[in-house]
């Protein structure tokens, strides 16, 4: 196990609703990245937080937003949910020192109906 | 833009055999890193091995080795002595130095190890 935890494990929402996903990073890691993995695809980078600041963003609309807290845990918020937002959301923690390998949590599976 | 290509949709191998999983990459940056992750049906991405573009020797971690051939832009994963627990999805990923340090993933490939 990596020490990265995510909650909840599963979530069902309806179109137009808002959702918050949570992630606790591995001890000693100050960087958290979020990825969206649609069924049958590789993970797609949403954004990364480093020391509570956004440190890069992928090709996702502004209704995907995030936060990082002083203890380096993080939240991913998605507003105005769409059917295509149904996916596995993965959180990864890392330290920018070293080679920067990212350690992933178990993911949150979001279903939008 | 960076891109990872994994063209093998699935592979079947007998237990204890070696298997090579293919990955090609595209980047114009001279400094980059290549990763392999394993994703069992439970969903968690498990880091297997890393190699940087400036590393002189191919990386090895236990039964895993990364065969980086920069001229061909390939970064194949070799698993020696396959085990039943190796059955999973395998993803190749690349990180370009600088910026957000994001990982760009391929579509993955499914490995099935038969007894």
Structural notes for this entry:
The complex is a heterodimer of chains A (113) and B (115). Chain A is mostly beta strands. In chain A, 0% of the residues lie in helices and 50% in strands. Chain A contains no helices and eleven strands. In chain A, strands 2, 4, 5, 6, 9, 10 and 11 form a seven-stranded mixed sheet that branches. In chain A, strands 1-3-8-7 form a four-stranded antiparallel sheet, with no helix packed on it. In chain A, a hairpin with an 8-residue loop joins strand 9 and strand 10 (103-104). Chain B has 115 residues and is mostly beta strands. Chain B contains no helices and twelve strands. Chain B has strands at 3-5, 10-14, 19-21, 24-26, 32-39, 46-52, 60-61, 64-69, 74-79, 88-96, 103-105, 109-114. In chain B, a hairpin with a 6-residue loop joins strand 5 (32-39) and strand 6 (46-52). The mean pLDDT of chain B is 92. Classes of the chains: A mainly beta (113), B mainly beta (115). At the A-B interface, strand 4, strand 5, strand 6, strand 9 and strand 10 of A face strand 5, strand 6, strand 10 and strand 11 of B.
List the main descriptive attributes of the protein structure presented here.
heterodimer; A: 113 residues; mainly beta; 7-stranded mixed sheet; 4-stranded antiparallel sheet; 11 strands; 50% strand; globular; B: 115 residues; 6-stranded mixed sheet; 12 strands
């Amino acid at each position: 196990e990596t020490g990265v935890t995510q909650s909840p494990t599963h979530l069902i929402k309806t179109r137009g609703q808002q959702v918050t996903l949570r992630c606790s990073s591995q001890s000693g890691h100050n960087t958290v990245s979020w990825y969206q993995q649609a069924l049958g695809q590789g993970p797609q980078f949403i954004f990364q937080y480093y020391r509570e600041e956004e440190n890069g963003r992928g090709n996702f609309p502004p209704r995907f937003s995030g936060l990082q807290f002083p203890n380096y845990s993080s939240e991913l918020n998605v507003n105005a949910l769409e059917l295509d937002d149904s996916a596995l959301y993965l959180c990864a923690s890392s330290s920018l020192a070293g080679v920067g390998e990212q350690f992933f949590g178990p993911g949150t599976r979001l279903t939008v109906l | 833009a960076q891109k990872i290509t994994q063209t093998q949709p699935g592979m079947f191998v007998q237990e204890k055999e070696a298997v090579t999983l293919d990955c090609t990459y595209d980047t114009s940056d001279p400094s980059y890193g290549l990763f392999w992750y394993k994703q069992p049906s439970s969903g968690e991405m498990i880091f297997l091995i890393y190699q940087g573009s400036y590393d002189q020797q191919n990386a090895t971690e236990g039964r895993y080795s990364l065969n980086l051939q920069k001229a061909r832009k390939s970064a194949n994963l070799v698993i020696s002595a396959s085990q039943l627990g190796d059955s999973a999805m395998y993803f190749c990923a690349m990180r370009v130095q600088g910026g957000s340090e994001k990982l760009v993933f391929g579509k993955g490939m499914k490995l099935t190890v038969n007894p």
